[in-house]
Amino acid sequence: MLDVDLKGVFYCAQAAAPQMIRQAYGKIVNISSALGTGTTPHNTAGSPAGSSAYASAKAAVIQLTKTLARELGPHGINVNCVAPGTFLTPLTGETRTPAEVAEHIAHRTKTVVLNRLGTLEELANAVLFLASDEASYITGHTLYVDGGRTDRCDRRARGLPMLTLYYSPGACSLAPHIALEEAGAPYALQLVSIPKGEQQAPEYLSVNPRGKIPALRTGEGVLTENVAILTYIARSFPQAQLLPEEPIEMARCISHMAWLSNTVHPAFTHIVRPERFATDEAAHANLKATGRQNIWKLLQELDALLAGREWVLGSRYSVADPYTLVIYGWGKGHGMPLEQLDHYTALKDRILRRPAVRRVLEREESRLLQG
Ligand SMILES: N[C@@H](CCC(=O)N[C@@H](CS)C(=O)NCC(=O)O)C(=O)O
Fold it and tell me: Quick check: CB of 211 below 6 Å from ligand 1?
């Protein structure tokens, strides 16, 4: 690996430089890699082998480019480098099983702003540009030819802290959990089990003194309230397109989430925690029964507003969808006949087909996966 990817590059330059110096003109374009830039973490999706030899050789090529540019610049020689992202070549399949190739392509497509892998012509064009006189005043430069890798642009790459989601499986924290996964965000999970009452433990109250899940720890402090957390995730990772840009569509998305948070969610609290609404135990049965009626009406309202829509906002998926999915799971968990709600059930099925959603539901062992 080091012989081909590093020594090969060094010896080529060493062989070509004397002739270039004699003619006082030359262009050297080295081939590094996104993995050599130190800004793209090695992601093992579909790439099971270790990459330390490859990454270090490719990083060395970037440093070689910079130092050679300094040494050869006075002789009229430009030395540059390209750092390609993911391009499919015969090697892609030689080092992976077909399933790993598919996983590799799916993952890399998702982590690219342009949402597709590059063609070899596009890479060759970048090299041609640096080799041409169009690039006569560029030297010592590394050109990223990677379709805009989002993991290069992410918080980890920018040295910002990871996001930490405080969650409890099946709770409304499922929505931001899905949003983080959809966004390709770097995040860690911190389990705060509601069944075990951990949301009232001093450790968690120091995070969210209201003792509610979810909370999201950011580099700028802790955020609470689902609507704010979902909006923050969507705005922090705009390439994932989880919140419309146009003010009116953005407001519609927030309006839907606010209604889930301030009306639909509390309706469930009446049946789960009636003691919070009436100290007289005799009233609890009535609170639960009324709560169930209210919830069923709200679920029907949701079903009606989803008629003719692919997603909550119409034709575009947004953070409002996973939040709406959470409510479906709760209705089902309380034995309500959700299957009677055709539009809502169709939305649930569509959301469940999204790979990021499935990963999260499997992680949370969600009952939504049980059909
Ligand atoms: N308004 C808050 C409500 C959060 C909330 O009530 N979360 C529930 C879990 S779904 C919780 O923490 N329950 C524990 C409790 O109330 O003690 C939000 O939308 O984030």
Answer: yes
